[in-house]
């Protein structure tokens, strides 16, 4: 089966599953379409997105990986919620079909560097080479230029900010997270962290990691928490 047919079947499956989206599901309240430009968003470092009170944007970093990303996709599909995945170039190269599946199921995709390095510890030529590599990986998988970039470790550098501005690529930082990178985390711990972060911020761009096993396991509970607290999901797209 060729790539186009695979994508079509996945998209049709997504349309079919949308028919099961009732009032008991978290859902996706609206889509916020951003221009393909060198904007900077995320209240932890930049201006906030134009969100209303009680709105959240679901984002996942570091994938795609076959061990956990499909579990994340299932949890999102079960709640009819759409997210943005910031993908590492090396994982794009390893799992291109899975990356295309993410987008075929209605989610959007940006990049998160090629190898997830500490960019501030690299020379400027090394930083720019990493950027060129992840751009190439994204273009090979999706056939177009990435619209958005999230810095690894949220560590911004002048050289990369300049390169992203020149390329017209939006930087997406975060408003809140759940610190979900510890292998000993449990669902209860991650739920408690989400509650604490939501209480502090009232919503915004949520950072999670689709490569983390505890996150994949906890996501159904995290999405149900958002529903119980009457949060609305906003999906990011780029024109």
From TrEMBL:
Residues 54-234 form the NodB homology domain. Residues 1-18 form the signal peptide. Pfam families: Polysacc_deac_1 (PF01522). The lineage of its organism: Bacteria, Pseudomonadati, Pseudomonadota, Betaproteobacteria, Burkholderiales. This is Peptidoglycan/xylan/chitin deacetylase (PgdA/CDA1 family). Transmembrane segments: none annotated. GO terms for cellular component: membrane. GO terms for molecular function: hydrolase activity, acting on carbon-nitrogen (but not peptide) bonds; metal ion binding. One of its GO terms (biological process) is carbohydrate metabolic process. Keywords: Hydrolase, Metal-binding, Signal.
């Amino acid at each position: 089966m060729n790539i186009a047919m695979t994508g079509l079947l996945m998209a049709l499956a997504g349309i079919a599953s949308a028919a099961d989206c009732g009032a008991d599901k978290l859902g996706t309240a609206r889509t916020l379409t951003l221009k393909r430009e060198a904007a900077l968003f995320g209240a932890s470092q930049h201006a906030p997105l134009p969100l209303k009170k009680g709105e959240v944007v679901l984002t996942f970093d570091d994938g795609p990986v076959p061990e956990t990303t499909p579990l994340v996709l299932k949890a999102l599909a079960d709640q009819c919620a759409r997210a943005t995945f910031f993908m590492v170039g090396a994982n794009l190269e390893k799992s291109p079909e899975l990356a295309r599946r993410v987008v075929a199921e209605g989610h959007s995709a940006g990049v998160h560097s090629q190898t997830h390095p500490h960019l501030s510890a690299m020379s400027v030529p090394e930083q720019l080479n990493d950027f060129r590599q992840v751009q190439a990986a994204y273009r090979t998988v999706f056939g177009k230029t990435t619209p958005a970039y999230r810095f690894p470790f949220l560590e911004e550098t002048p050289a990369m900010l300049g390169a992203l501005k020149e390329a017209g690529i939006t930087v997406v930082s975060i408003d809140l997270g759940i610190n979900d990178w510890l292998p000993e985390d449990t669902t209860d711990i991650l739920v408690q962290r989400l509650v604490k972060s939501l209480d502090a911020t009232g919503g915004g761009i949520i950072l999670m990691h689709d490569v983390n096993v505890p996150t994949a396991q906890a996501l159904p509970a995290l999405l149900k928490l958002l529903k119980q607290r009457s949060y609305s999901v906003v999906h990011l797209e780029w024109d």
